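G., the chain you wanted modeled:
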Amino acid sequence: MANRPKVPEKLRQELLYESAFACVVCQARRVQIHHIDQNNKNNIPVNLVLLCHDHHDDAHATKSLSQNLTPARLKEFKKKWINQVQQNRNMIATLEGQLKEADSWSGMGILWGYINHRRVSQLLNPEILKCADQNLLGRCQSHNVVDQSGILLQPKGWVPEGNYIGNTVYDWFPHGDDHALHKLYSDFVDKITQRVIPIHLEKFSWTKSYIGNCLHEGQFIFFTKAQYFKQVSEDTENAHLRVKTTLRKITIEYYIDTMNMFGVTSIAVSFTGHKVCSSLLQVKSIEKDSDDWTIHCTPIALGVGFRQSK
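Predicted structure as tokens:
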């Protein structure tokens, strides 16, 4: 045992994350790392699998091959479970996936209520434009809502009126075009999410062990959690909000603008006070101040009406 090399912590956290911190056979949460070839020195990822205590014992047992967890069966269990985990995460992180799962009633409340149009436009490329809804894209281009690159166009001569609740980017355009713009950019967000494959910060991955080893600047993250929305400034066109949420002394912080929100409910209800919402963000920096860590982010989109991930 003294010569047994320890599985590197980064690799250990990656194995835990890809298996959703669960046994690949039965999905129990108390897990151990098992070496498929039973060579404890062979710490390459394909040779490692997460098993609960009972199935770890089974993998070392000398039962008949028809019942034993052989290397071939372990690899099959691992492949099947990891694929299922990834598919579930892909579904949770996109409007498209949520709508496929939702019934006609619950689907009514699912949408990206906030989209960072400027940042999304920076992430667009010809491939995303090609895969986007061409009818929506064509309509928005022909109505001068977006240009040929999908970038939002502010109408010439537009003058804000009243207060920020009625002066979002969607208020720049006539009824119909505003909904087309929102559907188009929601589609853009989904296409971007499918390409960047965000890290999901869930109950078991929201830890310093995982974040310290596996999260870095530039990565995209996704989570659903209660968050605190506090207004820090206001003018006629926009209210600027700071958003924070904390778990296990790890705080995520970012800023959003009401001008990028769709609908009065988003501005006045969904993204105010202490509310649960889904957040797709890009990490700018990770500040480690003693026991308290802060992840500073750039928001991409915030979802309302999303289901809680298990």
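The mean pLDDT is 91.

Shout if anything looks off.
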